[in-house]
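Lab notebook, entry 331. We have the chain sequence and a SMILES string for zinc ion, and the next step in the workflow is to get a structural model of the bound complex before anyone spends time on docking refinements. Request logged below.

Task: model protein plus zinc ion, output structure tokens.
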Amino acid sequence: MKKTFYELALQNPGVVAWYSALKLEMAVHLAKEIITQMLQSDVVPGREEAMARLEAELQQKLGLEVSVADLPDFQHYGYVDDFYASLEWSAGGLIHTHIAFWIVGSPRIDKAVVPKETKPDEVEIDVTPAEAFVLPQERAANLMATFWDRVITEFNVGKLVQEAAESTEDAPVDLRAGVGVRSKLGRKQERATKTPESISWPTFAHCLLGDLSLPTEAEEEACWDELAAILGACARPDWPKEVCTPGSASVEARRALARKTFVAALAEWVDMHDLHAPFPMGPPGKDQACATVDNEHSAQERCSCNKLYPRSCIAPGQEEINEDPRRRDLY
Ligand SMILES: [Zn+2]
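Result returned:
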């Protein structure tokens, strides 16, 4: 069957392109919707603080006599109102998209002023236009973090779940060296494993979202069995098994735990950058997909991850804005 799909795809590139575009466009709209929901939600903490900051910024620009509460920026805070996306795929088979979102209330920063050493005989020419929004690095970082922390995280839920299950005060689990399940499977077994993103719609809607009721108990059980099979193969070994078996916990509590476990497994399955070899928290091996090799075949040969992982661990409130070492002037 797989071979048939492969042959058909080769013979009909137009159909493949149409399907890839459709799938990616759906992903773009899904991301747009989710970001709007999260930014506008009371459930995600920090909205009041973020809005207070926006209010202060607007007030500063408009003067005290203007009421900012009536402005659309304030009323539609967090709404993703436009996007630009490019949909891409190539012979490698990895379909992906690059998106820019326009979001009501997102901070505008044209330039972050980063303190740097200057030599006495050096002359620096500043080409920043007069109307640009220039902020000192620390304030820029603070503003960005207050807005974006509510939607984006590099936090690994899988590691948290494992820590909660295994750590004791005397023997904390070494999470820095711990990788997800995928890297230990090997190519052959990885291909034979049903990945979390292939979950069927009934299982997703019934077990995780809880908004699909099924006519018979047997059908419900089949869904929980499918979820158990996915988590059994893709989640960290000590995932809470009671998620998929009726027990003392209410079905709502089971669903909440199932969602957390599923998200953890999904995130580890699709994130490839803590799978660097030989050390998961070190640079990638020379032959890994994300590796960039500088000064190859010399004594200074150095291998690093082109997505800059592993990144340093930053505590809330300590965020910084740094220049991408590979792309000048990109922060
Ligand atoms: Zn990497």
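Notes for the group: Strands lie at 80-88, 96-103, 111-113, 134-136, 291-294, 302-305. Worth checking against the assay data. Residues 157-270 form one domain.
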